[in-house]
Amino acid sequence: MKHFLDITRETCPMTFVKVKLQLARMQPGEQLEVLLSEGEPLENVPRSCEEQGYKVLSIEPTDNHRHLVLIEK
């Protein structure tokens, strides 16, 4: 199952907090698509997820300086 989370209006550290809360509600093997902004969120969220043991499968640019990050629990 794939989940989606838009954190483009959030600022650090809330960006990772929201991602971590969503991942905690998911089952192992499920995927989370996270839409986030360039800058701190793009630098911190993927790194923090990997540090917590999650897999960052891809990071794709979208539009308006935003990116879609695919994370597997």
Low-confidence stretches: none
Head-to-tail CA distance between termini: 11 Å
At CATH level 3, the topology is Translation Initiation Factor IF3
What number of structural domains do the residues give? 1
Spatial order of strands in the largest sheet = 1-2-4-3
Give the assembly state of these chains.
single chain
How much of the residues is beta strand, in percent?
A: 35-45%
Radius of gyration: 11 Å
Helix content class: 25-40%
CATH architecture: 2-Layer Sandwich
Describe this protein with a few key phrases.
73 residues, alpha+beta, Translation Initiation Factor IF3, 2 helices, 36% strand
Could you explain how this protein is built, in words?
It contains two helices and four strands. The protein has 73 residues and is an alpha+beta fold. The protein has one domain: TusA-like domain (Translation Initiation Factor IF3, 2-Layer Sandwich), CATH 3.30.110. The protein has a four-stranded mixed β-sheet, covered by helices on one side. Helix 1 links the parallel strand 1 and strand 2. Helix 1 runs parallel beside helix 2 (40-51). The longest helix is centred in the middle third of the chain and has 12 residues, at 40-51.
Topology (SSEs and partners):
Layout: E1 2-6, H1 14-24, E2 31-37, H2 40-51, E3 55-61, E4 66-72
Parallel strand pairs: 1-2
Antiparallel strand pairs: 2-4, 3-4
Helix pairs in contact: 1-2
